[in-house]
Specification:
This protein has about 400 residues and is α+β, with helices and mostly antiparallel strands. Among the domains are: about 10-30 and about 35-170, Immunoglobulin-like, CATH 2.60.40; about 280-410, Nuclear Transport Factor 2, Chain: A (Roll). Helices cover about 35% and strands about 30% of the residues. A hairpin with a 5-residue loop joins strand 6 (about 100-105) and strand 7 (about 110-115). The protein is rod-shaped. The N and C termini lie far apart (about 100 Å).
């Protein structure tokens, strides 16, 4: 069943005449002799209109298809049903490209199929329609323009659409059947592709969630590793303190200077001491003792002095693990937390540049809140660079260990 309107009156009659003429020539070809043979295929191709390209666009609620040819050509336009489509028959025409199916994203047109029927020397353009819409064909100097109005389109139920067959399709029923099979396969592939795209989006969302979880786990592992290194450094520091006490006890018992042995016994188990006791800061000058200070404040200041000496030695040795063990978890310095501070020091330690660091005129004070304040003149040299400033450290006793909670520096 065909419905719609023809672009030019009388064109379908001429197209059918052309088909019959070609069919007659093909029917009589078997009884022709070399002397009276008809035109060759090459001559027919030269006389035929050449379809160079076909374009599609949407503009002002219209779908516009342009068929560019080597010259003006005759055509017949009609609609087909099940599935709904607009067919444009172009007799006596050839293609400059391979026939193919093109999927488009339109409100009316969902795809375009270009078919060539060699037996009748005809080309057909089929526009797959999502809804019924009026159409108009206009012949231009170098192309044929097909317009479909999207605003007036109405969806047609498939039950009301009847089958239709064009003249060219009637001449090649086998080709039409193959095209219908290809269209059905194409619809299946489009549905499968949509399903795969949805599944791909779902997997991508899951992948993003897994990346977030992995990043969070990695961050927790880094924090755990930093805490482990800090605890190990503190264990080494306590072993050094125990070794120092052992040496003092040994010297007091013998009346002669003695050096610390490689280990001491605690509860029957030997405790190795691989690192010597860090030397205290040079020439510490304690802050004046106020009336509120207790007689054992000097022992507290000595512990603070040893903690600062360990911090300074770790800096000189570029030992990031020992250096990190000298800081409290809530440390703040130069508008940075502990992670940023240690990250900056890690970069500087790994640069390979040699430096010297010195602390002079050290002063230690213990506040009423138990916070120790250490102030000294710091001199730093590396290569041609040198600076000298006033360093202020604030330390808090946590579990018997003095840890740095803040660090400030100002130039002198």
């Amino acid at each position: 069943m065909m419905y719609g309107k023809r672009a030019h009156p009388g064109v379908l009659t001429r197209a059918m005449a052309a088909v019959l003429t070609v069919a007659a020539v093909l029917a009589g070809a078997g009884c022709q002799t070399p002397g009276n043979a008809g035109p060759s295929a090459a001559v027919e191709n030269e006389l035929a209109a050449r379809i160079k390209k076909i374009t599609y666009m949407t503009e002002n609620n219209r779908s516009i298809v342009k068929v560019f040819g080597s010259r003006k050509f005759e055509y017949t336009a009609y609609k087909l049903a099940d599935p709904l489509r607009l067919a444009v028959e172009i007799p006596n025409a050839t293609l400059d490209f391979e026939p193919r199916h093109i999927v488009v994203d339109g409100k009316i047109v969902s795809g375009m199929m270009v078919v060539r029927f060699p037996k009748v020397n005809s080309v057909r353009l089929e526009l797959e329609l999502l809804a019924d819409a009026p159409f108009k064909l206009t012949q231009k100097p170098d192309y044929l323009e097909v317009q479909l109005s999207e605003g007036a389109a109405t969806v047609q139920p498939r039950a009301a659409q009847g089958p239709s067959v064009s003249a060219a399709a009637a001449a090649d029923n086998k080709g039409t059947g193959d095209l219908d099979a290809l269209r059905a396969e194409n619809e299946t592939l489009r549905a499968d592709n949509l399903t795969l795209r949805k599944e791909s989006l779902r997997l991508e969302e899951e992948n993003q969630q897994l990346k977030k979880v992995q990043a969070e786990n990695g961050k927790q592992m880094e924090e755990a590793a930093a805490l482990s290194r800090s605890l190990q450094a503190r264990v080494i520091f306590m072993e050094e303190q125990v070794s120092g006490l052992q040496a003092k006890v040994g010297n007091a018992g013998s009346g002669e200077p003695r050096t610390a042995g490689p280990s001491i016994a605690l509860g029957g188990a030997p405790l190795a001491v691989p690192v010597p006791v860090p030397a205290p800061l040079p020439s510490p000058i304690a802050a004046p003792i106020t009336a509120t200070e207790k007689p054992d404040d000097e022992k507290v200041k000595m512990g603070v002095n040893q903690a600062v000496a360990a911090w300074l030695n770790a800096w000189r040795e570029k030992n990031l693990g020992k250096y990190a063990s000298c800081y409290a978890a809530d440390f703040r310095g130069q508008d940075m937390g502990l992670d940023g501070w240690l990250g900056d020091k890690k970069t500087k330690f790994s640069s390979g540049r040699k430096f010297t660091i010195a602390a002079d005129n050290v002063k230690i004070g213990i506040g009423p809140d138990g916070i120790a304040t250490v102030v000294f003149e710091q001199t730093y040299k590396t290569g041609a660079y040198q600076d000298r400033g006033l360093k202020r450290l604030r330390l808090r006793n946590q579990g018997g260990i003095w840890l740095i909670v803040s660090e400030e520096w100002s130039p002198l």
